[in-house]
Specification:
By secondary structure, the protein is α/β, with parallel strands linked by helices. It is built from nine helices and eight strands.
Amino acid sequence: MKITYSEYNSEEITKVLDSILEYRDELCVNTMLKDCQDGYIADETARRKGKLFSKGATWVASLLVLRLFCWRLIVFGIPGVLIGAFIFVGILKGMADRMNHLFGPEKIRLGTPAIYGHLNKYRVWENREGQLHITDAPEFYGFPKLKVRKNLTEGDMSYIVFADTLLGVANKISCLRCLAIASEQIKEFVDIYGEENVAIDMECVSPAAEQHQEDGTPVIALHEYVITLREITGMAGDTIVPTEYEEKKIRIPLEGGKEIYTKWKEHGILNLAYFDMEYAFAKKACETCKTEIPKRWMESGLSPDSNVIRDLNKLSVFTEPRKDIASDTMEHEEESVFRFPEFTESGSDGAAMIETLKNRMKPES
């Protein structure tokens, strides 16, 4: 058995990830999502407002049609009223579909036309509750939803490319973060029991149960790879009294997991440094964005005092990798679960995080 640990410290990688995502939020808000904050759906409460808005628009439109075309049927008495009621039900049903399509909650892909229909092309792996950022397919309702679509079709496509690039970088960095955390936790476990006393297994698993949102809508099932650590001697370190056999499960993302799993099964090498090489590419991509965004911004005649320009240093937070594995900073948990932010339940600070994201959606004064 051989373990290749990631060279990166998870805390440093987390800072890089957060900085990139925060800057991308600002870029999106001030370009393709400009003036659309009122219709942004950051939580279930906003989603319910979107559904009510759609229903309200349905009734208003249906009553308007009834007033314009069906009121004359009243002169035919009861048969006319019955016919009018039948027509109104048909109008109501047709309008419901139309208004929901126009104004109802909908995830809109922030991407180029070539990949416009592919939702969640990039996913950011997370294991922290309350981390909310604008994803590749944020949800909108009402008139702001129409505004977003207009911005995407008639606006400057270069900002969509920048946003896609930064989200792709965040995707790779989040996977690196995941394996950096796994490295720290595995090394901590191995240091306690000794490498010769630890059995390691790895498998691909699907979620234990199908998840649903509050409205009953099913959530996409996520497959992950699980690394299982088992202490096989009943001894902890230098103790002479047998203890209970310890077991620890660590989940890693599907992306890269297959290659890591294959190498583990074929060669007995657990390569937790699989995403380490992505760090240099991510740094270069952010440097390119940092150079090109101001050029495009000035060419568009936009204000140089914008947060988009002032906060460009958020794309320069890359540091050199740390060779030491900081195991003493890790929390002791029974199981580490890496999920996407949209699939984690809000913790006690969920309301505060939602409010923070809503504030990011506000236009610059």
